[in-house]
Amino acid sequence: MFPKLDPILHSELRLAVISLLAGVESADFTYIKQQTGATAGNLSVQLDKLSAAGYITVEKGFKGKMPRTTCTLTPAGLEAFRKYIDALKEYISH
Amino acid sequence: MFPKLDPILHSELRLAVISLLAGVESADFTYIKQQTGATAGNLSVQLDKLSAAGYITVEKGFKGKMPRTTCTLTPAGLEAFRKYIDALKEYISH
DNA sequence: ATAAACAAGTTTATATTATAAACCAAATTA
DNA sequence: TAATTTGGTTTATAATATAAACTTGTTTAT
Fold first, then answer.
1. CA B40 to CA B22: how far, in whole Å?
2. pLDDT tens per residue, range A15-56
3. Residue B16 to chain A, least CA–CA distance (Å)
4. How many C-beta atoms lie closer than 10 Å to residue B35's C-beta?
5. Which of B25, B47, B27 has its CA nearest to residue B35?
6. For the whole model, what pTM was predicted?
7. In chain A, what's the furthest Cα-to-Cα distance?
8. Residue A5 and residue B12: Cβ atoms within 8 Å?
9. Which helix (H) or strand (E) holds A52?
10. pLDDT value at B53 more than 80
11. Which domains does chain A have, with CATH numbers?
12. In terms of CA atoms, which chain A residue is nearest residue B23?
C-alpha cells in the first residue's frame, strides 16, 4: 500500500539537487548551492552521497584558475527520481 | 525555488499515517500498524510526534477489556498535509 | 488455578542522517 | 603584502528513525 521511499532521494537537499539536475545538462557546485540555498558543507556531503549511489557524476576541473565542480545526473539517477515520484504519489493521492 | 518541506511530514512513516488518516474518520493503532507495516515501537514514537505537532489527536480507551488507541487527523494536520503536497510538487515537477 | 502465549503498546538504546561549524588552499583585491 | 573572497572538504554535533527490550494486562491451554 505504501511503497518504500528511496532513502537516498527522501532528503530535502538531495531531492532538490536531483530535481535541479533533471532539468539541465549539468550544473556546478556554486550554482546548485545558490539555487538550493544549502550551506557548502551540507551540499558537499550530499553530493558525495548522490555520487556514491551512482545517481550523479561529479567532475572536478578548473575554470581558468579557480576550481570548479560539475555535477551531472546519470541515467540511474533519473530512473530513481522517476520511481521516487511514482512511490510518492501512493502517499499523497489517497 | 525549493520551498522548505515540513519536517514533521517529511518522514516515510509519519507521511503514511497522515495519508491514511486523511481518507478515514479515524483509525486505531493496530489498523495503522497493519496498513503501514511499521513496528509498534516506531509507530508509537511517530504518533507522539504527530500528536505533539497538533496534526492528529490520540485517544486512549478500551474495546471490551483490551486497550485501544484511536487516532484522528486534525484540521491543522490536514492543512499541513495539503501544504506539504504543494511544496513537494515544486520539487518533482521541474 | 496456574503457566504459557498473545495483544497493545511504551520506553530505551542504537544506528543513521542532516546540519553546521571549523578548517584549508588558492586566487583576487585593497 | 595583508586581507578578503572563492570553492570547497572535514569533522563535530544535533536530530531522526528504527529496532530491541520491556510493561501491563488478557486470553487460552493444562
1. 21
2. 999 999 998 999 999 999 999 999 999 999 999 999 999 999
3. 6
4. 15
5. B27
6. 0.93
7. 53
8. yes
9. helix A40-52
10. yes
11. 12-89 (1.10.10.10)
12. A94
